[in-house]
Amino acid sequence: MNRLSFILISSITFGVSSNLVACSVCFPENFIFGVATAAYQIEGAWNVSGKGESIWDRFTHQRPDLIFDHKNGDVAADSYHRFKEDVRLMKRIGASFYRFSISWPRILPDGLSNEVNADGIRYYTELLEELRRNDIKSLVTMYHWDLPQALQDLGGWTNPIIADYFVDYARVLFDSFGDLVTAWLTFNEPYSFCRDGYGGLEAPGAAASGLEDYMCGHTVLRAHGMVYRMYKQEYRHRVGGNALDAQADLS
């Protein structure tokens, strides 16, 4: 189980004699335990079956000197090939939900919706079905930092048109997985990937603080609002995952 980078919340049993003290360390009965991952951190298979290159693929290959231990996500935990084993482990530890991200370039290799990668659709469909068979709810993040490199070549999140491309990508996700997903998130920590990616030394490594990080933030906020409105108007009453009503993870 230690091959996975799970963010795991676990309950702890204390040997206490006082019921009052025991209750103070207990979780409520309706508390839900889950685990979480990000696609680039666990999937591997970085260039398998039609997947496109992401900014983190490019960054870790070209600038390994900026990565701890000079490592990359080419293989990672190999969850692309071992997702059924991963789900069994989640079931074994009693997880009720699984938050994971979908790799934009695995679905749309060049970031554009005119070319949908059938293998990417297959992979996430099988993962979601496996979760459902094991009574594990899915919390799906649309974007956890792995922008298709083809879109970064257009300026990435500093280019306002990327918001429109993100809407197209979200539409593919809703159409393909809407009846399997329990809840959706648009972005994971946009403050971090804008600040560190466009203003610092993480992928794509723009290091343009005070300019590109602000442009990134503006585009991402627009993209979130556009997808939320599209979901509310077109999908809310016919697909699952209406937790998209909540805002993105903006921490």
TrEMBL record:
<dbReference type="GO" id="GO:0008422">
    <property type="term" value="F:beta-glucosidase activity"/>
</dbReference>
<dbReference type="Pfam" id="PF00232">
    <property type="entry name" value="Glyco_hydro_1"/>
</dbReference>
<comment type="similarity">
    <text>Belongs to the glycosyl hydrolase 1 family.</text>
</comment>
<dbReference type="InterPro" id="IPR033132">
    <property type="entry name" value="GH_1_N_CS"/>
</dbReference>
<keyword id="KW-0378">Hydrolase</keyword>
<dbReference type="InterPro" id="IPR017853">
    <property type="entry name" value="GH"/>
</dbReference>
<protein>
    <submittedName>
        <fullName>Seminal fluid protein CSSFP028</fullName>
    </submittedName>
</protein>
<keyword id="KW-0326">Glycosidase</keyword>
<dbReference type="GO" id="GO:0005975">
    <property type="term" value="P:carbohydrate metabolic process"/>
</dbReference>
<dbReference type="InterPro" id="IPR001360">
    <property type="entry name" value="Glyco_hydro_1"/>
</dbReference>
